[in-house]
Design a protein that fits this description.
Number of helices: 3
Radius of gyration: 18 Å
Order of helices and strands: HHH
Number of domains: 1
Length: 123
């Protein structure tokens, strides 16, 4: 049986927030993903996957750091956040690919050539 304490909800919330913070650091919003999906769906979803791997690392550290009877807390908070975010971004991608709409950026692949040693696009 799971022993509960007054701190369970806070710890679960912390791990959910960690996942949301990592995804925020690696991705645009689901709304931006939807708007720009026709031009960049593959790269947008690549970064969602990278963010989820990073978030899973933090959740794993949390599981290792939690006391024996409390290891479920980071799994519940972080796992639920990861599942919800994955489905938000998949929905955004699919909605953008099926409905289109005006993008927030202009993508001209032929016009872009990287500068020597630079990974950024010219402005």
């Amino acid at each position: 049986m799971i022993e509960r304490s007054d701190t369970d909800a806070a710890v679960i919330g912390v791990y959910a927030a960690v996942v949301y913070d990592v995804i925020s650091a690696t991705n645009s919003s689901p709304q931006t993903t939807e708007i720009n999906a026709p031009a960049r769906a593959r790269t947008l979803m690549k970064w969602v996957k990278i963010g989820l791997v990073q978030a899973a690392l933090f959740v794993g550290i949390g599981v290792a750091a939690e006391p024996a009877g409390k290891k479920w807390r980071p799994i519940l908070g972080g796992g639920l956040a990861m599942i919800l975010l994955w489905f938000q971004y998949v929905h955004a991608r699919d909605a953008g690919l099926s409905n289109g709409g005006p993008p927030t950026e202009t993508v001209e692949p032929a016009a872009w050539t990287p500068f020597a040693g630079s990974s950024t696009r010219p402005r």
